[in-house]
Write a structure and sequence with these properties.
elongated; single chain; alpha+beta; 233 residues
Amino acid sequence: MSRPDSSTTIAAIASPPGAGARGIVRVSGPLARKIVSATWAGEEPVDLRRRGLHVGRFRDGRGEQPLLLLWMPGPRSYTREDVAEFHLPGSPPLLGAALARILELGAVPAAPGEFTRRAFLSGRLDLTRAEGVLALVSARNEGERRAGRALLSGGLAQRVDSLRSGLEDLRALVEASLDFDPRDTGHVPDDEIAGRARAIREEITAALSWETARVGATGEPRIVLAGAPNAGK
């Protein structure tokens, strides 16, 4: 597995579009400390030696905004990098000015899903939970939202772990039946092994059905149009 590009610092507006009481600009990467120090306008210098919540003001290059800074130094952060969340007034122009200032200081715009990608590549999230974040963000109805929450909470990972444990137990029983004579106490009857195998097969079928339904419910439908050129496809 490749590691995230630790040479870049990413930034993005992390709150929903539109106006609100508060908006969030998130930064992750090696320049996070520099960006915080360059934009901080509190009455006292901000202490970045440990994670915490700091009240101050944000200098966006045009003026100052009220700021609630959430500082999360790596590796105890979502991406395992230094992460700063600037909680600012939820005015789109003010958030845009704050993001522009952060980009001027060396950050680059985060690609869609980039924070979660870095969390996955750094080992903070497994693949199923990373997919859960994507499914939850792109959910279009209640069913897709529940599927996303199940993935995010480790639903698929728990299913896989259970299946793996069951298969390992079945292998141990099969090996015991081969190692011991039917007259020995360690021998496992064939009907018990067959029963365990049927139960695991049913669990695999159920897990496959759940995963197939989940994958089919997310994303836009894709079709292929095939035919001769200029045939009206």
